[in-house]
Amino acid sequence: MRDEVVVDPNAGHPRRWGILGVLVFSLLAVVLDNTILNVAMKTIADKTVGLGATQSELEWAINSYTLVFAGLLFTFGVIGDRTGRKRMLFIGMALFGLASLASAYSQDPTQLILARAAMGIGGAAIMPATLAIISNVFPPGERGKAIGVWAGGVGLAVAIGPITGGLLIQHFWWGSVFLINVPIVIIAMILIATFVPESRDPKPSKLDPVGVLLSIIGLVAVVYGIIRGGGLGTVLSAEVLVPTLFGLVVLGVFVWWERRIDHPIFDVRNFGNVRFSSAIGMMGIVFFAMMGGMFFLTFYLQTVLGFSPVQAGALMIPFAAAQLIFAPLSQRVNERFGAKLSATVSMIVVTAALASYALMDQDTPIVLIEAIFFVQGAAMANIMPPATTAIMESLPREKAGVGSAMSNTVRQVAGALGVAVLGSVLSSNYRGEITPSLAGLPADVQHTAGESIVQTMGVAQALGEKGQALIKPAFAAFVDGMHVTALVSAVIALVGVAVVAKWMPGKTRPVTQAEQKEPAVV
Length: 522
What we know:
Elements: H1 16-45, H2 55-83, H3 85-104, H4 109-137, H5 140-171, H6 176-179, H7 181-195, H8 209-232, H9 238-260, H10 274-304, H11 309-315, H12 317-326, H13 330-337, H14 339-356, H15 366-381, H16 384-393, H17 400-434, H18 443-449, H19 453-462, H20 471-503
């Protein structure tokens, strides 16, 4: 590890742009993992070439990662601020690589869910460290541009992920989508050890194990209840109400605890800052709608429209390419028109794009789908970097790790809830629509076939010619369910429009040197 040196925070580290490149590359594995998994879900659900995962198990494969990730972000942000962000980044990469290896060789859905949770531990150590290091090595005048490049790097990973996942699944087995992380992790660890300087908070916060435990228990209980409701097709069952209400109570205790102690992991008092609260609220709403939308788009492209994993991955490139192109430019747009106007317009475009999925069916031209993907990606590119910058600049510079943790926690929790809520809406609607077409099948087969379109297609294939009669109703049921889910996501995004238009500040003056804190140790 490199020795720490004191530099002028208004001048920045002399090798800051090279350091930024290493940090973006280090983040590549984390972002790749999520985008690759989206393409691989249909294959993992297949009983022959995958693990035979049900829709609820697929949701947990996604959410086990995000819930652990979100629950530990605060703690790892504080530990990084205390013990060294470079050290935390290095350890996180090692954990992520080992857990990726375990995910690749999982023998059943339960093992995959547990291995994904272990990946969340590594990811929670990686993400806050990257933004914290950026805030410490870049001067105020360049920080917005650096975060834009960082977001553009995320967009690049999003672009690479789907097509890479499709190629891997086409030529290898499903586990290769996780195994690809290992060489990336090894290279990243070498670069981190060589180029990234160490930094820490001279006045670090205390740890809050009670808060961590309460947040994880509460979130897991709520998400379990939501996913269970989608599987059962009702929210009135005790299996749904008990865990959901228990989780909400625990989260209420979590908020009470965080307000009571003097070293909270999630300082709810920060929401009194309108710039912080509006930016983080907008980010949460966007990720809720986006992650839930990606969940149903995977099955729409691969099952209903019949594209292969490679083709489905390629079809997602316009969305990712738009982010890659526009994210680095978003700061200029934000500076010229102000955060309120640029974010409001972008949120309106995202809402319209989500609503447009309610008009898609088996005959929708692929060119139109691609155009919508591109427009949605461009709009999101003009939301995330300015929002991230606003969040980071709302807190003292030496608390960069905590600020990054709060930002990413909201994103991950919102994404997990998006998959759980919108996935459950899709599952419930699909089961209700397909049930009449399954009436002639044995009871156990009916239950299995009604879980998801992948399960229905599996039963149809097993029944041979007799099963062909299920295909058309299955497609129709899924499209109807997708329409309802898309409209729900659009309504939620519309709430984001109102939040931004009401509370997001307009143009803000540049931060002066006199307002910056004392030189940080980098």
